[in-house]
Amino acid sequence: MKCPKCGNEIKRGVVESKDAGSLMQSLTMLTWYPEEYKGKLVKKNIINLRLETDGYYCNECMKVYAVFDEK
Predict the structure, then answer these.
(1) Count of alpha carbons within 13 Å of 60, Cβ hemisphere only?
(2) Does pTM surpass 0.70?
(3) What is the pLDDT along the chain (71 residues), one digit of tens a residue?
(4) How many helices (H) and strands (E) does the chain have?
């Protein structure tokens, strides 16, 4: 697969979300929402995503690209 930014070959891997909180605060969630809700306290049209997916890393751009499935 080619990097969408620079066009170089990118490496396949895995992107996952892990809980960084304590046992009492297990609130890890990955979400998508429309850009117009960025920075707002209340967000509408939220889509919850699976916490693990295939990802691709570009050594040149040092960026990760991933496609997540909806839960």
Answers:
(1) 9
(2) no
(3) 899 999 999 999 988 776 655 555 666 778 888 888 888 887 788 888 888 888 999 999 999 999 888 87
(4) 0, 5
